[in-house]
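Posting here for the record, re: iron/sulfur cluster.
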Amino acid sequence: MDASTQTNAAHLLDWYDRSARALPWRSPPGSPPPDPYRVWLSEVMLQQTTVAAVGPYFAKFTGRWPTVEALAAADEGEVMAAWAGLGYYARARNLIACAKAVAARGGQFPQTEADLRELPGLGAYTAAAVAAIAFGQRAVVVDANVERVVARLFAIDEPLPGARKAIRVRTEEITPDRRAGDFAQAMMDLGATVCTVRSPRCLLCPLSHACAGRATGAERFPVKPPKAAKPQRRGRAFWIGQGGAVWLVRRGGTGMLAGMRALPDDGWSARGDGASEPPLPDAAWEGGGTVRHGFTHFDLDLQLMLYSGGDWVSFPAEAGEWWPLDQLEQAGLPTLFAKAAALALAQKEQVGEYLVR
Ligand code: SF4
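Prediction output follows.
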């Protein structure tokens, strides 16, 4: 690292010492590193999710499962239910697999980036972040905030995602040997609080003297690729209520929202195939409105079908369970199905016992 890079790192760390965000999974600047379990858990939760949204989930998980061994021994259904609402449910399944692997090592996380990568579901970013923040290893940590700061600092003109290679090389150049964890968190904080997506506060920035992007209009970095339209998918979900309860199923082990508790549906998928018949083919169904939900790669219009057939229905016990309506919040429904349930319940309020026999 040359002298100017060292000076820039020193400026940034000085700023971090004064301005670090106080977050429940962190240690204050310059103090011993935080518990690797808390670092790892927070980094998994923070992928594609804001700090504000993660806060209550982090408190819930660490309150209920304070160690990686406790999480490894937890009932998987309970972990998935506790995760409900955070989205990207593959993360929760990977979380369980990784916790079990660490528990099998006596509860000790490996300390190097390469060894962390060997854990199930632990990708390049999370391995670098845990190595740097929990173990003080020099690692190149590039999240969305860091990506933005570096693209602006070096005025990287290439659009994403191609620019990621240059951003990584530049981040590697400016990462110091000492206080690598604080440096990574300082870059994250700078992106979150100063070098923001809109209206970056360059006058307050500790790196403004070295920033190439500032002079040419910082907001245009990182350069975005042309936007591709998301495909629109359609599906149906089925609300079957009786006796103050609703019929819920556990989704299969693969595919969207795998392993989550849900309303029965017609097998909609990201590819747009898989539509099947309602679970009660002879029953009467009425349209109950449509829920719109955006996934990363497609938008879904989920039509809600309300069972209004006259017969008391029964299902094989292994297919699902009758879930009490007054405890629906504890079912851990993912957001899509929570929205559908809210729509059904709003109509139930309008039409009295129409849905519940
Ligand atoms: S000077 Fe402005 S654009 Fe450059 S890194 Fe700082 S806040 Fe971002």
